[in-house]
Amino acid sequence: MGKRGELFHVVTGAQALAHEAADRIEAAALEATRLRDRFTLVLAGGATPRALYRILDVKPRWGRIDWSRTEVFFSDERCVGPDDPASNYRMAHRALLRRVPIRDGNLHRIYGELPPEEAADRYDAEVRAAFGGAFPTFDLVLLGIGPDGHTASIFPASPTLKVTDRVAVAATALTEPKARVTLTLPAINAARQVVFLVSGKHKEHALSWVVEDRERGENARLPASCVAPKDGLLVFMVDRAAAPYLSPRKRQP
Ligand code: 6PG
Question: Is residue 201 in some structural domain?
Fold first, then answer.
């Protein structure tokens, strides 16, 4: 477990989850811009974060985050064009990014329309450049967990699990679109804070395995179990439908 440990927030319903996550991101943004004059945020893909990305509809103050000092990255991308319905960028852009004043050059899209290896090399270089050529230390990384325990586009038994010297790599998903680009575990685990957003009964088993793996502290069985920020904080933001197997202590509101 990282130096800053882990937190559990269990709430009732997807909208409450979005509000809790929005508050956590806002706090991280205020601290990062106060301390470092910028906030580096990694957006998750998939469907769960959509309610969070649309939170401006119901939480206008989320617009008070200093988006002009925010740099946005993506945890992973499907290798499709930015206008493809499967694109994680497209979902985030329609829900949030087109509505906030992010400066040119601070929106780091993964170019899914390129061949996967080329897109991964481009994103790897772009992320490093955003951190002065060094390995990134993102302020906050949002992630989901798939029913099979994958996270970002790091899937069970994939070679991506063993990558140590890259920020981003091409990967292969078990479901279409299979060609992906993903941040690696070292890039995720160097973050100051990682937030899992987990919603739905279909995630209950994967979540319980991940939490068990962390408690055992060895032989992680799932890619999401390998997310362990070295010096950062790991936060599980979970709706109650996904939490039946969590211990009562972890399920406290
Ligand atoms: C993706 C995501 C992926 C997602 C999980 C959960 O590109 O699909 O990065 O890792 O976070 O599969 O997806 P849902 O939120 O749709 O359940």
Answer: no
Q: What confidence score (pLDDT) does residue 64 get?
A: 79
The answer as to whether 18 is a domain residue is: no
Looking from the CA of residue 153, the nearest atom of ligand 1 is: 10
In a domain, 100, yes or no: yes
Specify the number of domains making up the chain. Answer: 1
Is residue 197 domain-resident? Answer: no
| Nearest atom (ligand 1) to Cα of 144 | 11
For ligand 1, atom 8: residue with the closest CA: 46
Residue whose Cα lies nearest atom 12 of ligand 1: it is: 146
- Please tell me the distance from the alpha carbon of residue 6 to that of residue 234, in angstroms, as a whole number: 5
Q: Residue 77: give the domain boundaries.
A: 41-187
Q: What is the CATH number of the domain that holds 120?
A: 3.40.50.1360
Among the listed residues 131, 120, 144, the one whose alpha carbon sits nearest the alpha carbon of residue 47: 144
Rounded-to-integer distance, Cα 14 and Cα 238, Å? 9
Give 239 Cα–ligand 1 centroid separation in angstroms.
16
177 in ligand 1 pocket by Cβ < 6 Å?
no
Query: Which residue numbers in the chain have pLDDT < 70?
Result: 1-4, 253
> pTM of the entire structure?
0.96
Span from the CA of 1 to the centroid of ligand 1 (angstroms): 24
- Using alpha carbons, select from 131, 136, 129, 176 the residue that is nearest to residue 153: 176
